[in-house]
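batch job 7 of whatever, protein = Oxidoreductase
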Amino acid sequence: MRLGLGCAPIGNLYRAIDDDGAAATVDAAWDAGIRYFDTAPHYGLGLSERRLGAALRRRPRADYRVSTKVGRLLVPTPAATGRDEDLFDVPATHRRIWDLTADGVRRSLDDSLDRLGLDRVDMVLIHEPEKHPADALDQAYPALHALRAEGVLSEIGIGTGDLEIACRFVTDTDLDVAMVAGRYSLLQQSALGTLLPLCAERDVAVLNAAVFNGGLLAEDRPHAGLRYDYEKAPEALVARASAMAAVCERHGSTLPAAALHFAGAHPAVRTTVVGAQGPHEVSRNAALAFGPPPPAALWAEMIEIGLLRRDAPLPDLGRPAGLLA
């Protein structure tokens, strides 16, 4: 399995962490062998990018890969006194403006490089193209295609949880990667019959993100109050996750371990991207992901009692772990 660090949490997603905690999170990922880091201007109004860049500054640039995103520009709001209202616990020093024009894409990338303190990133993704699909296809994509042709970028792609727009991009454009959030996991396999085979056919690498579905699969024993896709998890999904956790326990494993190994098992998935609220979560996730997969009997029981689709690829005991995206 290849594992990447999703950096929304170091942008204060849901709750604030200090600069030292953010740096320790990135350091823990590095120490665990993770060399791919995904961020975005949206994450904490640029805070995630600034913190990631600071944490990586002493690392050899050739030894890691970074992706960021375009679509939203950050515009200063000097008179603002409140807090950001979009999931991130940060001061509302900027507001997000959608700009998918060629100029907007280049400006967004330049601003991201400035915040990261880098002269290049390896991948740039159009963030949530479903919000403005025509502009994303007709303006942002050609701009990224041109930047790739100029050698400014190695890979271009999209980052979305919308399978319809993802399939449209994979079909109609020349993407390198597609980051899909929360649509291929133990609880949600809607991408299995749609996006994943299409990506395999078109040779588009899948970056599988939000594989804990917002937190519901991140606990050994799920409980009410956990999140699913940014909202409080419905009772039915808590019950389903709890049933999965019970199967895992019967076979000497845990729900997070099964979630990680399942998410990376599909051959179209190049990298599993996981966020963490601190260094301990990073270390745990890496130990589970790079450790042995759960036994075959666990998957067999999940399939038998209807918790898992029969056509879902299962972890390969012989598949080597990797480090780079």
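notes: The domain at 3-304 is CATH 3.20.20.100 (TIM Barrel).
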